[in-house]
């Protein structure tokens, strides 16, 4: 379906400390977009300023921070915003039985509620303009689940569902809602997830303590490089650029072979087969 092109190339990109967010901010700026990137930490904000950006502090788990970031962004852009790229998020690893209420609430708050809250703050301006784009960076794990990633998958499944609803609800407003679904990407995501697991999981599981310890150390030491199945963050940035600039954007953009395979499996593979495949990955309890 054709959508009005963004007439003023002002874009907010979240989660720009590294990885997909930083690659996207750089690429969009190269292509003539006025980019406001966000980050949580002072060091990351300083790094973005050093690259010539005007960053905004944003913690999606904090409602006041989201309110302030939206207001500051609109001030920088003079009240006109063309697009929002919801990329920020993190992964809470762990077996379902080891996930506390607090872990789940934080995971959903940052990966789902926060991005939705942020996007909706710009919809009134986009409605008034008659054009705008909201790009939500989801994951292949928003289509299919693997062991020890249930919390992360739940947050991405939720993002997928609400994005689908919003896309239909806004169909005649000129606002396009688009999902980008990466598979394995070379970034700090795995390393950061391992460090979080080290804090939240170690010493708290009677069943999987040994497995957690070994897996955390493996991921912290791991130096992943691009290959056939794992792509650099720039590959996702290119898809985000397409989602923002295409006159007929797709509803979903998938990145990496596993993203396509996972989507196919979620649609066509029977549950018993998926369960069987996933049990092959389980450690001895």
Descriptive overview:
- The mean pLDDT is 96.
- With 285 residues, the protein is of the alpha/beta class.
- A 7-stranded parallel sheet has the order 3-2-1-4-5-6-7, with helices on both faces.
- The protein contains 11 helices and 7 strands.
- α1 links the parallel β1 and β2 (34-39).
- The protein is 49% helix and 12% strand.
- It has a single domain (10-90, 111-185, 232-279), classed as NAD(P)-binding Rossmann-like Domain (Rossmann fold), CATH 3.40.50.720.
Tally of alpha and pi helices: 11
CATH H level: which superfamily? NAD(P)-binding Rossmann-like Domain
Mean pLDDT: 96
* CATH architecture level-2 label: 3-Layer(aba) Sandwich
Element order: H for helix, E for strand:
EHEHEHEHHEHEHHHEHH
| Beta-strand percent range | 5-15%
Number of strands: 7
Helical amount: 40-55%
Which spans of ≥5 residues are poorly predicted at pLDDT below 50? none
What is the CATH class?
A: Alpha Beta
Name the structural class: alpha/beta
Which strand order spans the largest sheet, edge to edge or round the barrel?
Answer: 3-2-1-4-5-6-7
């Amino acid at each position: 379906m054709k959508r009005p092109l963004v007439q003023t190339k002002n874009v907010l990109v979240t989660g720009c400390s590294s990885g997909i967010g930083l690659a996207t901010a750089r690429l969009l700026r190269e292509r003539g977009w006025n980019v406001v990137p966000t980050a949580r930490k002072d060091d990351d904000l300083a790094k973005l300023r050093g690259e010539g950006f005007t960053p905004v502090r944003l913690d999606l788990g904090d409602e006041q921070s989201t309110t302030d970031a939206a207001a500051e962004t609109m001030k920088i852009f003079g009240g006109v915003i063309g697009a929002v790229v919801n990329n920020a998020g993190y992964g809470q690893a762990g077996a379902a039985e080891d996930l506390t209420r607090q872990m789940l609430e934080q995971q959903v708050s940052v990966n789902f509620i926060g991005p939705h809250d942020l996007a909706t703050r710009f919809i009134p301006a986009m409605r008034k303009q008659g054009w705008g784009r909201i790009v939500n960076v989801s994951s292949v794990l928003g289509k299919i689940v693997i062991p020890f990633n249930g919390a992360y998958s739940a947050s991405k499944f939720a993002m997928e569902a609400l994005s689908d609803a919003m896309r239909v609800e806004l169909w005649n407003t000129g606002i396009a809602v688009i999902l980008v679904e990466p598979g394995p990407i070379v970034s700090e995501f795995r390393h950061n997830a391992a460090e979080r697991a080290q804090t939240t999981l170690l010493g708290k599981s009677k069943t999987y303590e040994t497995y957690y310890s070994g897996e955390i150390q493996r991921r912290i030491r791991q130096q992943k490089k691009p290959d056939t199945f794992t792509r650099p963050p720039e590959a996702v940035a290119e898809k985000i650029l397409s989602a923002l600039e295409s006159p007929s954007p797709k509803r979903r953009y998938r990145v990496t072979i596993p993203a396509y395979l996972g989507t196919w499996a979620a649609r066509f593979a029977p549950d018993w087969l998926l369960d069987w495949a996933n049990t092959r990955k389980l450690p001895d309890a």
